[in-house]
Write a structure and sequence with these properties.
Blueprint lengths: L24 H6 L4 H12 L7 E3 L3 H7 L6 H11 L7 E3 H13 L8 H11 L7 E2 H10 L6 H11 L6 E2 L1 H11 L24
Antiparallel strand pairs: 1-2, 3-4
Helix pairs in contact: 2-5, 6-9
């Protein structure tokens, strides 16, 4: 039997309901037009263990936080709903992740607290104005109030927060430590409105 090519005919296209071909690597790279998008791609690729521009859906929160954002659990779930691959459940492709996350950050969502806001929060719970709180009290607040953290995340925080000599959290010193350790602010990479020649991610879909 002759094939369509052998008969000089064009091969039939996949039916409308068929699976679309994944975007090519060069197609994605060509759409990275600013430092914000570049930073998001770099963070994504750290967790792209197969090198196919796809990550496990469970890595989404970690990727967002690695950018210096502080999302709530509800914000992470909202991102997942919008970027999860509908054909391969449980995975996220950079093709959808990049424009959505870039747009969220460009609206200044998920920003971390400032040093002043953190100091005020610590002073509120330091009712005796000692300038420190105990390790146990800080762990209790982290685990029982606000957004949930894993035991590993809490242990990592305590490594930085607790003074090895006193065993307490000297919060002004701790705030200075985490502020110094913060990577270049992802929000400083948002392109000024006048420089945006297209909407973030336009042309991706």
């Amino acid at each position: 039997m002759k094939t369509a090519e052998a008969a000089g005919q064009s091969p039939k296209k996949a039916p409308p309901g068929g699976k679309a071909a994944p975007p090519k690597l060069q197609d994605i790279e060509a759409l990275i037009t600013n430092d914000l998008e570049k930073k998001i791609v770099e963070a994504f690729e750290v967790f792209d263990h197969a090198g196919n521009k796809t990550v496990d859906i469970r890595e989404v929160g970690t990727i967002i936080r690695s950018l210096g954002c502080v999302p709530t659990e509800a914000e992470i779930q909202e991102i997942i709903v919008n970027v999860e691959d509908q054909e391969t459940s449980g995975s996220v492709h950079l093709f959808k992740f990049l424009p959505y996350v870039a747009a969220e950050i460009s609206e200044y969502k998920m920003q971390p607290a400032s040093a002043e806001e953190l100091l005020k929060a610590f002073q509120t719970i330091d009712k005796d104005n000692k300038g420190f709180i105990t390790k146990d009290y800080m762990e209790k607040i982290i685990m029982e109030e606000g957004e949930p953290f894993t035991k590993e995340e809490v242990d990592e925080m305590m490594t930085v927060a607790v003074d090895p000599n006193s065993g307490h959290v000297n919060y002004e010193y701790y705030i200075n430590q985490i502020m110094v350790d913060v990577k270049p602010n992802i929000y400083s990479l948002i392109p000024p409105p006048e420089e945006k020649k297209r909407e973030l991610g336009a042309g991706l879909l």
